[in-house]
Write a structure and sequence with these properties.
2 strands; 415 residues
Length: 415
C-alpha cells in the first residue's frame, strides 16, 4: 500500500502517546488507593507499576486483539477503502490520547476504554455513516456510568462493614487483624487472579478451562495468604501509638495487604487495558501491510513492549494529579479503607465478567472509594470532587468523538 511506512510510523507514535495517557490517568487511578492510604509512597507506586504493569501488558496483553474496539462499528462498508480505516484508527488514537492528556492535567479519572470508543464512534459517523455505528453498544456505555460505581460502591460498603465488625470494633483489634487479614488476603488474591485468568493467558501458553482457572486462582490465593500470615505475625505493636487498641499497628497490618493488592491490580490492569492503546496500532499495521480490512489481527511483540513502556512512563511523568484526586480528595483513606475499595473493585470486575454487565474499571474503583466513604457517612465525602468526576465521565465519549472527527478530516485532507 502506498504510504505504508508513514502510516505505521504514525500509528506507533500515536499508540505510544495513547499508552502514555493510559499510564497518566488509568494506572494512576488504579494505584491511587494505595498511595492515598499511605500504604506505599509515590516512588514505590512507580516501581510497582514499572514491574507489574509492564509484565501484565507484555506477558498477558494478548496475542490477538479486536482491531475495532468492542465491535462498535460495522466494517463491511470499508472493505473497498482500507485507507479510510487507517485514517480512522489514527484519528481515534490521537483523539483519545489528547483527551486523556487534558483529563490527567485536571486530575479527572476518566475511562480510557470510553475515550477510545467515543473516538472510534466519531470517525465512524463522519467517515462511514451514522448507520455504521452499533448504537446499542453505545447504550451499554451510558449504563456503565451508573452500574459501575453503584455496584462497586455497594460491595465496598459491605466489605468495609465486615472489617469494622470483625476487626476494628472488637476489644483486641490487633489480634483480630492478625487472625482475619490472611483470610482477606486469600479472597483479594483469588479475585484478582480470576480477573486475569478469565481474560486468558494464551499469550504465554496458558490455556485453562473454567475449572482449572478457579483451582489455580484458589491456589494463588492460598499461597499469598500463607506468605501474608508469616509476614503479619512478626508485626509488633507501635510503642506509644494508640496504647489501648493498637489501631496504628492494625493499619500497618492492612498496609501489608495493600502491597499485595497493588501488585496484583497493576498486573491485571496492564494485561487488560494495554489493548486500548495497541489495538488500533495493530489495526493500522495489519491494514497497511495487507491492504485488507480485518476484524482481528495478530499482535507483534514489539507493539506490546511499546504499550507497556508507554504506560509506565505516563504514570511516572504525569500521574500525580489523578492519584491525588482518587486517593486523597474523594474521602480520607487508611490502609483498611483502601483495601476494602480495591477488593470491592476486583470483586465487581469478576462479577461483571461472569454476568456480562457493562462496567468500567475506572468507574468501578471510584465507586468503591465512594462506598468506603459512605460507610462513615455522607459528610466524609467531598461532593464537589465527586460532581466534577461524574461530569468528566459524561463528557468523555462526546469529547473523544469530536476530537476524532477533527483529526479525521485533517488526515483525509492532508493525505
Amino acid at each position: 500500500m502506498e504510504g505504508m511506512t508513514l502510516y505505521i510510523i504514525l500509528a506507533a507514535v500515536f499508540g505510544l502517546y495513547m499508552a502514555w495517557g493510559i499510564g497518566a490517568n488509568d494506572v494512576a487511578n488504579a494505584m491511587a488507593t494505595s498511595t492515598g492510604a499511605k500504604a506505599i509512597s509515590m516512588r514505590q507506586a512507580f516501581l510497582i507499576a514499572a514491574v507489574f504493569e509492564f509484565a501484565g501488558a507484555v506477558l498477558a496483553g494478548g496475542a490477538v486483539t479486536a482491531t475495532i474496539r468492542s465491535g462498535m462499528i460495522d466494517t463491511a462498508d470499508l472493505a473497498g477503502n482500507p485507507e479510510l480505516l487507517i485514517f480512522g484508527m489514527l484519528s481515534a488514537l490521537l483523539a483519545a490520547a489528547v483527551w486523556l492528556n487534558l483529563a490527567s492535567r485536571h486530575g479527572w479519572p476518566v475511562s480510557t476504554t470510553h475515550s477510545i470508543v467515543g473516538a472510534i464512534v466519531g470517525f465512524a459517523v463522519v467517515g462511514i455513516g451514522f448507520e455504521a455505528v452499533k448504537w446499542a453498544k453505545v447504550g451499554t456505555i451510558v449504563m456503565s456510568w451508573v452500574v459501575s460505581p453503584l455496584l462497586a460502591g455497594i460491595v465496598a460498603f459491605i466489605i468495609f462493614r465486615t472489617v469494622q465488625w470483625l476487626i476494628l470494633d472488637r476489644e483486641n483489634p490487633l489480634a483480630q487483624a492478625k487472625r482475619w487479614v490472611p483470610v482477606y488476603m486469600f479472597f483479594a488474591a483469588f479475585n484478582i487472579s480470576l480477573v486475569t485468568l478469565l481474560k486468558g493467558l494464551t499469550h504465554v501458553g496458558l490455556d485453562l478451562d473454567t475449572r482449572q482457572t478457579y483451582l489455580l486462582s484458589a491456589a494463588i490465593g492460598l499461597g499469598i495468604a500463607v506468605m501474608g500470615w508469616a509476614l503479619i505475625r512478626r508485626i509488633q505493636p507501635v510503642p506509644g501509638a494508640d496504647r489501648d487498641n493498637h489501631f496504628a499497628t492494625v493499619e500497618r497490618v492492612f498496609a501489608v495487604l495493600m502491597i499485595v493488592t497493588a501488585c496484583s491490580m497493576a498486573f491485571a490492569h496492564g494485561s487488560n487495558d494495554v489493548a486500548n492503546a495497541v489495538g488500533p496500532v495493530a489495526a493500522v499495521i495489519s491494514t497497511a501491510t495487507s491492504g485488507q480490512v480485518q476484524q482481528t489481527s495478530s499482535m507483534p511483540p514489539w507493539i506490546l513492549l511499546l504499550g507497556g513502556a508507554g504506560i509506565v512512563f505516563g504514570l511516572m511523568t504525569y500521574g500525580r494529579a489523578v492519584m491525588r484526586t482518587v486517593g486523597e480528595q474523594i474521602t480520607a483513606l487508611t490502609p483498611s479503607r483502601g483495601f476494602a475499595a480495591e477488593m470491592a473493585a476486583a470483586a465487581t470486575i469478576v462479577l461483571a465478567s461472569g454476568t456480562g454487565l457493562p462496567i468500567s474499571t475506572t468507574h468501578t474503583l471510584v465507586g468503591a472509594v465512594l462506598g468506603v466513604g459512605m460507610a462513615r457517612g455522607i459528610a466524609a465525602i467531598n461532593l464537589q470532587v465527586v460532581r466534577n468526576i461524574f461530569v468528566s465521565w459524561v463528557v468523555t465519549v462526546p469529547a473523544g468523538a469530536l476530537l476524532s472527527v477533527i483529526f479525521f478530516l485533517i488526515f483525509r485532507a492532508v493525505f
